[in-house]
Amino acid sequence: MENNFQAQMDDGLHVLYGQQGKDGVPAVPASTVAQQTAATDNSVDTTELGAQLLRLQAQANQAEAQITQTMMSVQAVQSQP
Prior knowledge:
mainly alpha
C-alpha cells in the first residue's frame, strides 16, 4: 500500500513538473530547479557501497544466530518436565 502511494505521488509530481506554467499551474522558481538538479547529480562510490552491504549482511547473520539461540533456549526450557 505504501509503495502504491509513493508511486502515485511520484506520478503526480511528474505531471505537475511537466505542466508548470500551463493551465494555472505556477512555474517552478529557477533556484528550486537548480537545487533539484544538484541533488540528483550524486555519484555512488561502489567500493563503499559493497563494504556497507557486507557489513549489513554480517549484522543480519549475527541477528539470525542470536534469534536461533534464543529460540533453542526457549524450546529447551519448555520441554523440561
